[in-house]
Amino acid sequence: MEFYENNQVIFLTGGTGFVGKTLVEKILRSLPKVQKIYLLVRAIDKTQLQNRVNEEIFGSRLFETLKAQFATVQDFHNQIASKVVPVQGDITLDNLGLSVEDKAMVQADTTVMINCAAAVNYFHPLREAVNMNCYGPLRAFKIAKGMSCLAAMVHISTSFVNTQFGPVVKEQMYPYPLGDPDRLFGKIEAMSDKELIEYERNVVLKVFPNTYLASKSLAEHLIMSWSRLMDLPVAIVRPSIISPSLSEPVPGWVEGMGGCNAVSVLSALGIVQEWIGFEKLVVDLVPVDLVCKTILMAASQAKRNLPAVPIFHIGTGSHNPVTYDHYLCSIEQYWRQARLSTGSSKISENVQVALYSAADFERRFHQRFSKELELLRGGGHEGLRKKLTQAYCTPKMYSVHGTHQWFWDISNSIALDDAAPEALHSGLKFGFSWDEYLHIYNMGLHEFVLKEQVDKKLVVKYFRKSVQRHFCPDGENIEEHIRHSLGLSSRL
Question: Name one Pfam family in it (predicted).
Answer without folding.
Answer: NAD_binding_4
